[in-house]
Design goal:
alpha+beta, Immunoglobulin-like
C-alpha cells in the first residue's frame, strides 16, 4: 500500500501550501512478503498476521529477527526476547512496525473473513483524498466494468475506489488558512460487510491495473485450519440480525519532516530522531482497542478520534493521513430462559370439584384420575415486568392411552397477572394402574418459563 506524503509550507503571513508526493512502490511494499516462504505471508489469514497468542505462525519470527534484531543495536530486540516467542517480540521490540507491515499487506483496499459464527473485516481510506486535497482523480477500470450503464453508481465507485485505494497523488495549493482534514465516521458495520468497496488497487499512473482475486475470504468450509488455500472468494456478507459488532477506529497522521512552529490540533508535538527499521513518526488517535503502544518522541497515541485535524502555524511538514475502520462481529449468545423469562411460573393445578395438586408453585398432592374424562384448571403467573404474548402449557410423560387438551392453546399474560387454562384429561379403559412421572411445562415458542414434575396416578 503506497503512502501519500503531503508538504505544507506555512509562511508568517499565513500562506500555506500542500504538495503531495509518492514514497515507495508496490514492489517495495511487497518485498518482505515475496522473500518469505509462502507459509509465512501468502498463506496466512489476516486474523493470524499479528500472531496474537499463535507462536510460530505467519511471518512474525522472521520479521522480528530480521527487522528488529541485533543488526539495529540502538533499536534492537534482545535475542532472548526474540527466542521467547512472537508476542514478546511484538510487545517489546517492533510493535508499531509489525502492525504497519500487517496492515499494508492486507488493505487493498479492505479485507473480510467470514467464519461460522464470526465475521471480521477492516477498510482503510486516504483522508487527503477524502478531503479533496488530491486532484485529477483517475477512475479505475473496475468501476466501468461494474457499472457500465449506471452513471451515478459509476461516479460513486470512482470516488470511493480512489480514496480507498491510495492511487497516484498530485499537487495543490491552499492559501490564507490552516489545513483542516475532516475525519468521517466509520461506515456502519452491516453496510460495510454487505457493500464493501471495490476490490482492487491503482497502479502508479492512476489507471486500473486489474482486480485482486478477492478481498473477502469465506472460511466456513475450512474447519479447524483456516488458511487462504481453503477459503472461498466472496464479494460481501449479509450480517445476520443476531450478530453484534465491536468496532475499532484508528487515524494515523504519518510525519516525514516537521519544523518547529507547526501545531496539530493546537498541540506542538516534539519529535525525536527516528531510529530503526521502517521507523515512522506518527500521531495516532483511536476509538476502541489501542492498536499499539506509544514510542516516546516517535509515536504519540491518543484515545479518542477527532472529527477534524487542523494543521496550523509556521514552517513545513511532510505528512500523510489515513483512517482504518475495523469490525469484529459475533453471534450473540442465547440467553438462558431464566433471564429471558424471569418470574413466569406455574402457579396452580387443581381438579374440578377435587383436590388442589399445585398451589403457589408448590406440589401438595399427586394428580389422581380414574379412567374417563376429568377437567382441571392450570394457572401461570407472570410476576415479571414484561408481557408474555404467547404463553402456553403442555404435559410430557403421560402414559399411553392418556391424552390431554389444553385451552386456550396460547394466551397473552401481561405483567403481574395470571393466565388461566382448562386442561381436559382423557384416560382410556386399558391404561394400566400405577404411578407415572408427568412434567408440566409453561413455555412460549421462544423458550421455557417453568417446569414441575408431579406423580400422575391411575387407580
Amino acid at each position: 500500500m503506497k503512502k501519500l506524503l503531503a508538504m505544507l509550507v506555512a509562511l508568517v503571513l499565513g500562506i500555506s501550501s500542500v504538495s503531495i508526493v509518492s514514497s515507495g512502490t508496490q514492489a517495495e511494499d511487497e518485498y518482505i512478503c515475496d522473500n518469505y516462504p509462502p507459509s509465512m505471508c501468502q498463506q496466512c489469514v489476516h486474523n493470524q498476521c499479528a500472531c496474537r497468542n499463535v507462536p510460530g505462525t505467519c511471518w512474525c519470527h522472521d520479521y522480528c529477527e530480521q527487522s528488529c534484531g541485533q543488526d539495529f543495536p540502538t533499536y534492537g530486540c534482545p535475542a532472548e526476547v526474540i527466542s521467547s516467542g512472537c508476542q514478546a517480540c511484538l510487545d517489546n521490540c517492533c510493535e508499531v512496525e509489525s502492525f504497519q507491515y500487517c496492515q499494508q499487506k492486507w488493505f487493498h483496499p479492505y479485507w473480510m473473513e467470514v467464519y461460522n459464527d464470526n465475521v471480521k473485516g477492516c477498510y482503510a481510506r486516504d483522508l487527503l483524498c477524502v478531503n479533496d486535497l488530491i486532484l485529477n482523480h483517475s477512475c479505475p477500470e473496475i468501476c466501468r466494468e461494474q457499472y457500465p450503464n449506471d452513471q451515478k453508481s459509476y461516479q460513486e465507485c470512482c470516488e470511493s475506489s480512489y480514496c480507498y485505494l491510495y492511487g497516484k497523488p498530485t499537487t495543490t495549493t491552499l492559501e490564507g488558512q490552516p489545513i483542516t482534514i475532516n475525519v468521517p465516521s466509520c461506515t456502519n458495520p452491516r453496510t460495510f460487510f454487505k457493500n464493501p468497496p471495490p476490490c482492487g488497487y491503482l497502479n502508479s499512473n492512476g489507471n486500473g491495473n486489474g482486480v485482486h482475486p478477492t478481498c473477502c475470504y469465506d472460511m466456513r468450509q475450512c474447519g479447524a485450519t483456516t488458511t487462504l488455500e481453503c477459503s472461498t472468494p466472496c464479494s460481501g456478507y449479509d450480517l445476520p440480525p443476531n450478530y453484534s459488532c465491536n468496532m475499532n477506529e484508528i487515524v494515523i497522521l504519518g510525519i516525514g519532516d516537521i519544523s518547529e512552529g507547526i501545531l496539530i490540533n493546537g498541540v506542538a508535538y516534539q519529535f525525536s530522531d527516528c531510529i530503526g527499521p521502517g521507523c515512522q513518526k506518527m500521531i495516532v488517535w483511536y476509538n476502541g482497542q489501542q492498536p499499539f503502544s506509544a514510542v516516546p518522541g516517535i509515536v504519540f497515541v491518543n484515545k479518542g478520534v477527532p472529527r477534524t485535524i487542523t494543521i496550523s502555524g509556521t514552517g513545513s511538514i511532510t505528512f500523510y493521513a489515513e483512517q482504518k475502520c475495523c469490525y469484529d462481529c459475533k453471534q450473540k449468545p442465547s440467553l438462558p430462559s431464566s433471564i429471558l423469562y424471569p418470574k413466569v411460573d406455574i402457579e396452580t393445578l387443581s381438579i374440578a370439584g377435587g383436590p388442589t395438586v399445585i398451589k403457589d408453585g408448590k406440589i401438595l398432592s399427586s394428580l389422581t384420575i380414574s379412567p374417563g374424562i376429568q377437567q382441571a384448571m392450570v394457572q401461570v403467573e407472570n410476576r415479571g415486568f414484561f408481557t408474555q404474548n404467547d404463553a402456553r402449557v403442555r404435559f410430557e410423560g403421560l402414559p399411553a392411552g392418556v391424552t390431554v387438551s389444553v385451552l386456550p392453546d396460547a394466551q397473552k399474560i401481561t405483567a403481574h397477572n395470571i393466565g388461566t387454562y382448562s386442561a381436559i384429561f382423557t384416560v382410556g379403559p386399558n391404561v394400566p394402574s400405577g404411578t407415572y412421572k408427568v412434567t408440566m411445562i409453561a413455555y412460549s415458542p421462544n423458550g421455557v418459563f417453568d417446569t414441575i414434575t408431579i406423580d400422575f396416578v391411575v387407580p
